[in-house]
Amino acid sequence: MRRVRAEEIMSSTLETLNRWVDDVARLTRPDAIHWCDGSDAESQMLTELMLARGDLLALNQETHPGCHLHRSHPSDVARVEHLTLVCTRNREDAGPNNHWLAPEEAHAKIDALFDGCMQGRTLYVVPYCMGPIDSPLSRCGVEITDSPYVVANMRVMTRMGAAALARIEREGHFVKGLHSTGDLDPDRRYIMHFPEELSIKSIGSGYGGNALLGKKCHALRIASWQARDEGWLAEHMLIVGIENPQGQTHYVAAAFPSACGKTNLAMLIPPEGYRRDGWKVWTVGDDICWMKPGPDGRLWAINPEAGFFGVAPGTSQATNPNALATVQRDTIFTNVAITADGQPWWEGLPGAPTVDWQGRPYDPANGPAAHPNSRFTVSARQAPSWSPEAEAAQGVPISAIIFGGRRPSLVPLVFEAHDWTHGVLVGAAMGSETTAAATGAVGVLRRDSMAMKPFCGYNYGDYFAHWLSFDRPGAQLPKIFHVNWFRKGADGRFLWPGYGDNLRVLEWILGRCEGRAEARDTPIGFVPRPGDLNLAGLDLPRAAIAELLDVDAAGWLPEMEAIGEYLATFGDRTPDRLETEQRRILAALAAAAPAP
Ligand code: GTP
Ligand code: SPV
Ligand code: MN
């Protein structure tokens, strides 16, 4: 632990790092500067500090040893997409998918807010590594923050401290992230990205993706920009290993929008019959995936994170027992409710809340007891399903890529793209209902290409072209699929049981990759017939299965037209190959649809 006065900041052998810390300290005027080493002693010191300040509350230490509750400001409970900006010299490079400001104007605007904002506070220098410390696929950054809660979360979510600093000093470069909680006024809140400078500035929020800058800001927005330049992919995807009864493990990466099931799929527990047969599921990552073609032409993937920042509500013994087991100890809970004996509580758990997420006595008239975007922060190593390969320096080879979203109608349970180009179109065309993970209306259907709408750090048209560029001689690309766990019946209830039973769909997907599973060809792709899926032991009406696997060509026509209009919004940055593919499918749908 090195705690120094603001004027003594020569704490790294890297001159550019010292100079940056110095410049930031001059601007923000903290009382003290603390270089984080990531040690247990430091973590304990920070926990005690936060307990003393009321930033953390101890939960029931008998049932939940090492667990704490943090309540964020009620106006600061989710990502703020309208205040998240990508600041490139040329506006077109950020694209219509991003909010934009010219870099000089952006710096001036946000630096005015940083001016003196750390007076009375400690400035923490947080060196971190995204990915295993020894992996060539990993990338480092330094976050400067005045929030001990952010430091504590970064320690769980990244490889934070001395080892990361050593790698940064060796490499000589790092992503710069400057963060302050400011005054938490939503009118003085911005999350700005400067991909051309490899830097991030965030002020006015202490919450999740707005403040833990290694996560969405670095590992997706900045990394996607670098990945485009360097020939790899930075994606909003889980990574999961599926071990079959023969003992072979295949890895799958899946992109679902925020709060649409990544953590749950990554930690899936097989249904009873599958367990008996010897199927096992291994978690490699639950939110972010960095992939790069290996010498064998396959895509090799790492999880750049070291922990889970997972959605609490809905996590239960029935839906995600792995997650529940993971959060029994050493977990930071944010904005959950508590029970009379001080245990964390959220909707979906047994028992009863007595105090809600805002610290008020629980009253159903005030809405849910836990905030719908309440979260747990926990080390990935605590998951019973944590893969032995999760920290491998070379990553894991990906056999299938899955896209999916919340689609109450039209979109079948699963289908397979005809080829890579079609698969990129399927990803680009993704739509999903909005969730509580971002501020704003919930349940509104919007396009969310590759689940990256809030996270792609550059023009989506260029991003689609980058995806297409992986299809080249020698490539052994994964097959691409689309799933929809959220199809609803006429009664408004989900048709598919989801969770553990999603393994039935994964089995078909892997069967397709190995050339074993059957399907019927349709204009939107290959779709299983009911007999092609293993539905043994599943109590589901035949009509529900038929509806889940139906392809309504007449219904798809306007959807495919809307996809064409959407692609056109990226102008001449949209690759021709994608528009040609969209027109091909449109024509096939028109031929298949009954005449009106
Ligand atoms: P982020 O961390 O925001 O990126 O979310 P995520 O994609 O990891 O979503 P998560 O797995 O946390 O799930 C979000 C919500 O969807 C939870 O309330 C889950 O209970 C629910 N959910 C997950 N999988 C399924 C499923 O298969 N079926 C249904 N009906 N709900 C699901
Ligand atoms: C998401 O919103 O996709 C999350 C949570 O995973 S946050 O870290 O806030 O981005
Ligand atoms: Mn996410």
TrEMBL record:
GO terms for biological process: cellular response to glucose stimulus; gluconeogenesis; glycerol biosynthetic process from pyruvate; oxaloacetate metabolic process; propionate catabolic process; response to lipid; response to starvation. Its EC number is 4.1.1.32. Pathway: Carbohydrate biosynthesis; gluconeogenesis. The lineage of its organism: Bacteria, Pseudomonadati, Pseudomonadota, Gammaproteobacteria, Lysobacterales. It comes from Dokdonella koreensis DS-123. This is Phosphoenolpyruvate carboxykinase [GTP]. Monomer. InterPro entries: PEP_carboxykin_GTP_CS, PEP_carboxykinase_C, PEP_carboxykinase_GTP, PEP_carboxykinase_GTP_C, PEP_carboxykinase_GTP_N, PEP_carboxykinase_N. Keywords: Cytoplasm, Decarboxylase, Gluconeogenesis, GTP-binding, Kinase, Lyase, Manganese, Metal-binding, Nucleotide-binding, Pyruvate, Transferase. Residues 19-228 form the Phosphoenolpyruvate carboxykinase GTP-utilising N-terminal domain. Binds 1 Mn(2+) ion per subunit. Belongs to the phosphoenolpyruvate carboxykinase [GTP] family.
